[in-house]
Structures are given as C-alpha cells and as structure tokens.
Specification:
Helices cover 21% and strands 37% of the residues. It is built from three helices and eight strands, in the order E-H-E-E-E-E-H-E-E-E-H. This is VOC family protein.
C-alpha cells in the first residue's frame, strides 16, 4: 500500500485585529490577500494571505496560548486519508468529515488537491 502525499496548505491563527496583521504581511513581506470572508453571525471575519496563513479575527484574543486554530493540509488521496485518519483514532468534527480532531486535540482540515498539485508543492526546495 502506498501512502498519500500531502503538504500543509495553510495555518489558521487567531488574531485580535486582522487588518493590522494583513498590513504586516503586505507591507513587510509583499504578500497579498488570497481570499476574505466577512463576519457572519457567530462566524468571525477571516482572511487568507497568499503564502499559507489564515487569520481569524478574535478581538478578545490575548494569546499566545490558543492562537493556533487548525492546520489545512492538501492531500492527493482525500478518501484514503480520511479512512486512515479514522482508523488511527482521529474524530470528525461538526464542521464536516474533512475536519478532524487528532488525539491530543490538534485540529486539521483535509483538502483534496488538484491533480499534480501536491507533487509540485513538494518539489519546491525552500532552501534554494
């Protein structure tokens, strides 16, 4: 049995002020907004910055403990990963079958990558 290939697509963190953090990523690192979701009832405002960071606005957050919300992981075998995760002891969360809580409490979001995307991402040498 071959194992799937995967990479961390984004890290979701809580911040008290999304705009201030977006300014840092844009002005200091040159990264732009990839996607944005307005606050909607209990769902907070969220911004995805190009470069694998998801900012979740939580004005009451004082950190640093509890800052990490979840890891978004792109996989080349969605169904296979979900089956292996369940057998391993991961529990599905109410957000959907691809939202998992691992033993120990880490939350992960499993995302199906388009064909060849995982291999392309893993081929990048970050130290080059």
């Amino acid at each position: 049995m071959s194992l799937p290939r995967a990479y961390v697509e984004h890290v979701a963190i809580r911040v008290p002020n999304v705009d201030r953090h977006v300014d840092f990523f844009r002005e200091v690192l040159g990264l732009t907004i990839r996607d944005e979701q307005a606050a909607d009832g209990p769902r907070p405002r969220q911004v995805w910055v190009l470069g694998s960071v998801q900012l979740i606005e939580d004005p009451s957050f004082v950190g640093p403990e509890g800052r990490l919300a979840h890891l978004g992981i792109m996989v080349d075998d969605y169904e296979g990963v979900l089956a292996r995760a369940a057998a391993w002891g991961a529990k599905a969360l109410p957000a959907g079958p691809n939202w998992l809580e691992l033993p120990g409490g880490l939350n992960v979001e499993i995302l199906q990558a388009s064909a060849g995307a995982v291999e392309a991402a893993l081929a990048i040498n970050p130290r080059a």
